[in-house]
Design brief:
Distance between the termini: 91 Å
CATH class of the largest domain: Mainly Alpha
Shape: globular
Oligomer: single chain
Number of domains: 2
Radius of gyration: 24 Å
CATH topology of the largest domain: Cytochrome p450
Number of strands: 9
Largest sheet: 4 strands, mixed
Strand content: 5-15%
CATH superfamily of the largest domain: Cytochrome P450
Order of helices and strands: HHEEHHHHEHHHHHHHHHEEEEHHEE
C-alpha cells in the first residue's frame, strides 16, 4: 500500500512540475491567449471564422508580436512587416524547428533546404539551388515548356468539356502547373489520365484531402500521431516512394548529361555539384545526390501547389472582375499580339504584372509561411525569445493590413496600387509585400514563380482570345474554410463563352 502511495505522489509531483514549467514558459514569452495544458490554444480555432481571421483577431487583441500555443508548442507570431524584416534578416532566427512534416524531408542520410536547420549543409544547398533556379527562370526553354503546357491543357479542357459549358478548372490547372514543374525539373510531360500524374497528384494533394489535413495536427501532437499511426505510416511510405522515384529520375540524367547543355534544373544541379567537386569547394561534401534530390522535391512540392493555387485565384479574380479581364487582354494584344511572350515582355506589360502582384498580395496562398527557430537567445522588439523557440511571420495579415501604414484599402483587390502615376509597374515594392516570405530563408523559387505566372497568364489569354472567361457558379472571394494550411478558392466553375 505504501508503495502505491509513493508512486501516486511521484506521478502527482511530476504533473505539477510539468504544469508549473508550462506556465513559467508562458509568462516568459510575448503575450497571447491563456493556454490549457496539453491542448494549448487549439480551441481558439473552434470558430465560425476562417482560421486566418482568428489570427487577425489575436493580433488585434495582443499586438503585432504574440504567442500562440499549438498543443504544448509555443509559437511566437509576428504580424508587422518592419518587425518581421528586422528579425528574419538575422542569423539568430534562421533555424528550423523539429516537426513531423520536416522529418519527411530530412534524416541522418539526407536533408533539404526547406526544413534543414541553419548550418553549412543548408548554406551549401541554398546557394547552388538558388543559382540553378534563378538561371532557369530566364532560360528560353521555359518559354517553350509553358506554351506547350498551356496549349495542351486548354485543348484537353475544350475536348473534354467543350466551349459554352460549365467547367471545373481545378484539375486542369493543377495538371498545367505540374507539367511546367515536371518539365522544368526533370524534363517530363503528363496527360490528365497518366498514371504517374495521378500518383504525383495523390501524394502531393489528394492524400491531404483524404485525411482532412490531419497532418497539421500531427505536426504538434505526438499523441495524435500515435492514435493515427496507420495513416502516419502510410504518409511516410508515400513520401519515401516519392523520394525514390525522384532520385531515379535525377540519376538517369547522368546517362546523357552534357555540361554545355542544361535541359532542366536537374542538369543545373549536376553542373553545380561537379564544379564544386572539381574546385574542391567547402560546399562539395554537402552536395550529395540525396541532398540535391531533396531540394528538387522542395521545389516540386511547394512550387506546384503554390503556383497552381495562385493561378486559380488569378482565373477566379479576372472572371469575377470582367473589366479587369478586358484590360489584361487589351494590354497583351497591344504589347505582344499573337507572338509568343518573352521574358523581357514583363517590362512592357505593366497591368499584367500589377494584376499578378495584387493577386499574390490579396490572396497569399501560404498565409503563415514556414516556421523559423531561434538558434540562440535573442530579442524580437522588446520581447526576449529563448533559444529553440518557434517563430513565424503571418504573411497574410501583413499583406492585407488595413491600417493604411502600407496599404490603402488593404482588404480590397486593386491592381493599380502597383502602378505609378505613369501607369508603369513599380518594381520597388512596399516593405509589406512579402508573398514569398522575408529574410534569409525567403522562398528560393520566387523568380521562377513570377516568370511562370506571367508567361502562363499571357499564353492562357492569348489562347482564349475567341472566348470570354465568365463565372458560372461561385459563392464569393473568401478562401476555402476547410483548408487548414493554405489559402485556396472555394469551388467554382467557369464557362469559356464563345464570342462568335
Amino acid at each position: 500500500m505504501i508503495y502505491s502511495d509513493i508512486l501516486i505522489s511521484i506521478i502527482l509531483f511530476y504533473i505539477v512540475y510539468k504544469v508549473a514549467k508550462f506556465y513559467q514558459r508562458y509568462y516568459s514569452l510575448p503575450p497571447g491567449p491563456f493556454p490549457i495544458p496539453i491542448l494549448g490554444n487549439i480551441l481558439s480555432f473552434k470558430s465560425k471564422l476562417h482560421w486566418i481571421e482568428v489570427y487577425r483577431q489575436l493580433s488585434q487583441k495582443y499586438g503585432s508580436v504574440f504567442t500562440l500555443h499549438m498543443y504544448n508548442t509555443p509559437i511566437v507570431v509576428i504580424t508587422d512587416a518592419d518587425i518581421a524584416r528586422e528579425a528574419f534578416n538575422k542569423n539568430e532566427f534562421s533555424g528550423r524547428p523539429e516537426s513531423y512534416f520536416g522529418s519527411l524531408f530530412k534524416t541522418d542520410k539526407y536533408t533539404d533546404i526547406g526544413f534543414a536547420d541553419y548550418g553549412q549543409t543548408w548554406e551549401a544547398l541554398r546557394r547552388v539551388s538558388h543559382a540553378a533556379v534563378q538561371k532557369y527562370s530566364t532560360n528560353d526553354h521555359l518559354l517553350d515548356v509553358i506554351v506547350d503546357s498551356v496549349d495542351n491543357t486548354l485543348k484537353t479542357m475544350l475536348e473534354k468539356e467543350g466551349p459554352d459549358k460549365p467547367i471545373k478548372p481545378f484539375d486542369y490547372i493543377y495538371l498545367m502547373f505540374l507539367n511546367i514543374l515536371a518539365n522544368s525539373t526533370f524534363g517530363e510531360n503528363y496527360s490528365i489520365t497518366d498514371s504517374e500524374f495521378n500518383y504525383f497528384k495523390y501524394v502531393l494533394l489528394d492524400f491531404d484531402k483524404e485525411i482532412e489535413y490531419r497532418w497539421v495536427l500531427w505536426e504538434f501532437s505526438p499523441l495524435i500521431r500515435l492514435f493515427d499511426y496507420k495513416l502516419v505510416d502510410k504518409h511516410r511510405k508515400l513520401f519515401d516512394d516519392l523520394r525514390l522515384l525522384m532520385i531515379n529520375k535525377f540519376r538517369q540524367h547522368y546517362i546523357d548529361y552534357e555540361p554545355s547543355i542544361e535541359r532542366d534544373i536537374c542538369d543545373a544541379l549536376i553542373t553545380a555539384k561537379n564544379d564544386a567537386l572539381r574546385e574542391a569547394k567547402e560546399s562539395a561534401p554537402h552536395l550529395t545526390d540525396d541532398n540535391l534530390v531533396m531540394t528538387l522535391i522542395d521545389l516540386f512540392y511547394a512550387g506546384t501547389d503554390t503556383s497552381q493555387n495562385t493561378f486559380q485565384w488569378i482565373l477566379l479574380l479576372m472572371s469575377y472582375y470582367p473589366l479587369m479581364q478586358t484590360k489584361l487582354r487589351q494590354e497583351i494584344e497591344s504589347k505582344i499580339g499573337d507572338r509568343l511572350a518573352r521574358h523581357e515582355d514583363r517590362q512592357r506589360c505593366h497591368y499584367v504584372m500589377a494584376f499578378i502582384a495584387e493577386t499574390l498580395r490579396f490572396r497569399n496562398v501560404f498565409p503563415s509561411g514556414l516556421m523559423h527557430k531561434a538558434v540562440v537567445d535573442s530579442k524580437i522588439g522588446n520581447h526576449m525569445i529563448p533559444k529553440d523557440t518557434s517563430v513565424l511571420t503571418f504573411q497574410a495579415i501583413i499583406l492585407r493590413n488595413n491600417d493604411n501604414k502600407y496599404w490603402t484599402n488593404g482588404l480590397d483587390f486593386i491592381p493599380e496600387r502597383f502602378l505609378d502615376s505613369d501607369g508603369h509597374y513599380m518594381t520597388t515594392h512596399s516593405p509589406a509585400f512579402i508573398p514569398f516570405g522575408v529574410g534569409r530563408r525567403v522562398c528560393l523559387g520566387e523568380k521562377l514563380a513570377i516568370a511562370d505566372l506571367f508567361l502562363v497568364l499571357v499564353r492562357f489569354l492569348q489562347s482564349t482570345q475567341n472566348y470570354d472567361i465568365v463565372l458560372d457558379t461561385y459563392s464569393d472571394l473568401d478562401p476555402n474554410p476547410n483548408d487548414l494550411i493554405s489559402c485556396r478558392p472555394n469551388d467554382y466553375t467557369i464557362i469559356l463563352k464563345s464570342k462568335i
